[in-house]
Amino acid sequence: MIEVKNLTKCYGKHLAVDNLSFTVEKGQIYGFLGPNGAGKSTTMNIMTGYLGATKGEVLIDGHDILKEPEEAKQCIGYLPEQPPLYLEMTVMEYLRFAAELKKIPKEDMEIQIEKAMRLTRLSDVRGRLISNLSKGYKQRVGLAQAILGFPEIIILDEPTVGLDPKQIIEIRELIRKLAKEHTVILSSHILAEIREVCDYILIIARGKLVASDTPENLENSMSGTGHIEIEVRREQKEVERVLDRIDQVKRVEYTLLEDGTVRAQIEAKGSGDIRERIFHAFADQKMPLLTLKLNKSTLEEIFLELTQK
Question: Tell me, what's the pLDDT at 190?
Answer without folding.
Answer: 78
